[in-house]
Design brief:
The protein has 115 residues and is α+β, with helices and mostly antiparallel strands. It is built from five helices and five strands; from the N terminus they run αβαβαββαβα. The longest helix has 14 residues.
Length: 115
């Protein structure tokens, strides 16, 4: 949503959403969020990016088509070895790992980034 707000079109970028949990990815693919998801006020023009459905707010197709859902283990050194990323964001990820695992993931990210 931030990239779309900045003026990029959905054809100009792709987001890879990675999780080790198949269940979490299925939930994310559904793209339906309850009221609790919006408690921080981060989406100022919510109706542009979401449409109301019975169980909450559903992300609009022009947003969801920018996301590629991938099941994978970031601790597997080969997982991102062929990455060619311009940026990597990992919100609330590293807090679940010990220091050794954090270092491995950060090194993996480093080698997956474009120069």
């Amino acid at each position: 949503m931030t990239l779309l707000k900045s003026g990029l079109t959905s054809a100009q970028f792709k987001v890879d959403a990675v999780d080790i949990s198949h269940r979490a990815l299925l939930k994310a693919k559904r793209g339906i969020y309850g009221k609790q998801s919006f408690r921080g006020g981060g989406v100022t023009d919510q109706s542009r990016y979401f449409q109301p459905v019975e169980s909450g707010q559903e992300i609009r197709p022009f947003v969801s088509k920018t996301v590629n859902f991938i099941q994978g283990n970031l601790l597997n050194p080969a997982f991102l070895s062929e990455g060619n990323y311009h940026a990597i964001f990992c919100r609330n990820l590293l807090i679940y790992f010990d220091a050794i695992a954090q270092k491995k993931v950060i090194e993996s990210f480093h080698f997956s980034l474009n120069e």
